[in-house]
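[09:14] KT: can someone run the structure on this one? pasting the chain below
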Amino acid sequence: MKITHVEVHRIDVPAASPPFRWRDGLSGSAPVGDGAVLHIGTDEGAEGVAVFARPGAYSTLRDLVDRVFRAELVGADPFQREWLWHRVWELDRIHELPLPTLGLIDIALWDLAGRYHGQPVWRLLGGFREAIPAYASTSTFAGIAEFLDVADQCLALGYRGIKLHAWGDARRDAELCLALRDHVGPNVPLMYDGSAGFDLPDAIRLGRALSEADYLWYEEPIREFSVSAYQKLAETVDVPLLVAETSDGAHMNAADFIRAGAATFGVRAGTTLRGGITGAMRTAHLADAFRVRAEVHGSDLPNHHLCMAISNTTYYESLVTSVNVVRERHVDDQGLVHAPAGPGIALPLDFGYGSELLPFVEQPR
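[09:31] RB: done, C-alpha cells below
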C-alpha cells in the first residue's frame, strides 16, 4: 500500500458560545476561524484524517503540505508510522514547524490504520481500559463566587475532580484555591493550571497555598523554557508538579524534566503538543519507567483514544467554559468517559460539518 494523495480541506471552526478566556493577559476562545482537515489517501482506498483547528490553521497547513509534507508522503507506506514520525522531526530542524502541526500526519496515519483494520485506535495501541473518570477543567471566571458555583454544578453532574484556570495573580489565585478546598471539603480531587503565568517567586508563593490545600497537582505555572526553574520549584513546594505540556521535543524534552526531579506528579502526554499519538505514547512510556504519571492533555477525540491506551494516566480532561455548566457529551452521569467504539479515531470524513465540529477539536490554551 502506498500513499497517493495528501489534501488539505478548509472548514469553519465555530466560535464557542458563550466566549471564554483562560487567564488575565491571555485571549480565550477564538472567533469563527478557518480550521483545516488533513486528508491522507492510498492506492488501496484506505484513508485517514486529522483536524487542525487553531487560528490560521488552513493557510498554515496548506502551505506546509504544498511546500514540505506532500513530497515526503506520496509514495510512502502509510503503515511505516515510526519512519514518517522521525521524518517530520527531521523536517522541523529546517522548517521550524508550528508545534501543533508536528503530530497531524501521525494522527491521520493512526486513523487510517484503524479504519483499515476495522478497530478503534486505542485497541491498536494495546488498550489498557474501557472507561476513565473525567475532571472538569474550567476556563477563567469573574470571581470566587462564580468558581464555587461552577464547582457545585460540576460535582452535581458527576465530574470526579476540578481543575482551575484562574487569573494569573498569585495572591488572588491562592485565595481562590484555598476557598475552593474549603468549599468542597477534603475528598474532592483538585488541580490548578497556571497557564505559564508566573515567574519563580510567584510560582513558589502560589505553590505553598496549593500544598496547604492538598491539591493533586500544580500544572505549568512557569513558561517551560527553564528546566532549572522547575527544579527549584519542585525543591521548594510540596504540591506535585505536572509539567512539559508546551515544551518542544515530545519525550526527549520530557526526559529532562523528569531527570531533573521537576516532574514530581508527571508530564503531559496529549496528541496536540507532544507529536501526535506516537509522540504521546513515547512520552507515556518514558514517564512510566520513572513511575510518574503521563496525564493526557485535552478533550478532543485523539486524546480520548489515548486515555484508553495509557496505563499511567489518571483522568480525562473535560472543558467547562460556561457559568451554566453542560456536561460534555463524552462524560456520563457517573463522571466516566467510555472507550470509542468506531474504527480509527472516528473523526468525520465529510468536510462539510459546522457546529458539530467542536467535540472533535481542542481549544488552544
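[09:33] KT: thanks! The CA atoms of residues 255 and 286 lie 7 Å apart.
[09:34] RB: yep, looked fine to me
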